[in-house]
Amino acid sequence: MSDPARRRLSADDRRRQLVGIGLSMIIETPIQDLSLDQVAVEAGISRGLLFHYFPTKTDFYLACISAAGRRILRNTAPDTSAPGVDQVRDMVTAMVEQIDRRRSFYLTLVHGSGVADPRVSEVYDSVRSVSTDRVLDALELEPAARPVVHAWWAYVEDRALSWSAVPMQARRESLDALVDHCERVLATLGAEPG
Do residues 55 and 118 both lie within one domain? Predict the structure, then answer.
């Protein structure tokens, strides 16, 4: 019987497999500490073959970061059939929960630590931009509100990062209270439906 880990995959399937392994590892390991040898072993391939799919360590890291950005957007996507204010609340709740679960990764994404490449910022900017567009669409806001909503997302992320830095049992603010606060800030900024 052949070893299932060593089965032949198409190039696209192998890349997806390697990125999936990288994503599962960066849950526990900062991306800059990710071992490509470990990734190759997990995939059942040689380190050299990994470099066939990703020419440099940075290319592999960026593929993992890009996939994580897509995952964040998937996990925070609103139910577009819900009322706009509910969509925004759900997005904020999902973003705070995402940051709470993956705080160290999110810090890497925001600050780019460990991967000195401007493409890391592009992934982060894409997440913020899509999130901004979703709020504008949900609340049917004018395009002129875009800079305010974009800046508001930075505030939400900062609050979530600060909140998640406190151990759960020591938090003075519940998730619901944090989300309520963020919603009030958005309204205070004047970015609410007309």
Answer: no
